[in-house]
Amino acid sequence: MSIAVESGGESTRLGSPEPLPDGTAPPSGEPRSDPKSDEPATRFSNAAAPDVTPAPAAPIGAAIHRHSLLQACQSLLRVVVAALFIITFTVQPFRIPSASMEPTLLVGDFLLVDKQVGAEAPPRIFPPTSVIHRGDLIVFHFPVDPSLHLVKRVVGLPGDRLRLRGGRVYIDGQAQAEPYAVFRPSPPDSYRDDFPRMVSADPGVDSRWWIEMHSLVSNGELTVPPDQFFVLGDNRNDSEDSRYWGFVPRAAIVGKPLLVYFSLNDADSTPGQMPAAAMSGDSAPHRTGPADSLIDFARWDRALHVVR
Known about the structure:
Blueprint: E1 2-7, E2 10-15, H1 60-89, E3 91-95, E4 109-114, E5 137-141, E6 149-156, E7 161-165, E8 168-171, E9 174-175, H2 190-193, H3 207-214, E10 217-218, E11 221-223, E12 228-232, H4 242-245, E13 248-249, E14 253-263, H5 276-279, H6 290-296, E15 305-306
Antiparallel strand pairs: 1-2, 3-4, 4-14, 5-6, 5-14, 6-12, 7-8, 7-11, 8-9, 10-11, 12-13, 14-15
């Protein structure tokens, strides 16, 4: 016996199963496929369903983080190696501490120095940009204290016969045109202005140099030895230079200044130098705002200034 039940517009029979086409009844407990359905019959059993819990995902985020950290370390290492290469063989930054090279270089200027000139010491990665000429600026190790770096202008080359008269430079008897030299007011100094003067030594003269100089002076002229250079500051009346401590050996030369890449406004330590506002013609009252302090703490007009 079977009972028909209406559900959602379709009828379903409950009760005894219908006979098979050959007249036999289907086995008991075996579900029969509905010939009108596309779904196969499912066998039900009391067995527990298999465990289909998904396996835990691999820690992809941690792996990506380690990979990114490794890449960052590699990039930093490349930058450090490149910087060391550049500083060792090509260019190096220096800061001007004194007023001896004014007005060419000011206190607080930061220089990039071309190290591919000077001493012919290996290794040389690039060919020298030029040889050293009279009038060139050079950075060198201070002969009295090699741990210090100085910058001066070359006025005497090897073999030159040099003297100063009234502060003016004469080479082999010929007066030199020096548009970069300045002579600011100062008390007279016969040793400084009429060099070499062997009558009496200035208190600031190095004793070793005073003794050596006697063997190099003839007829009032100083002869520059081979592989040595005579240097002076552009601020002639306020510069301790070769007049006071002697020649610069070729091996002590570091390089030539290329450009001023930055300049701190250090007017308080530079006699005769005007503040940045006055130099630019700004007659406005003294400014104290944060933005004004940022503007005034540096000489922005000297940034990337080529040194000549």
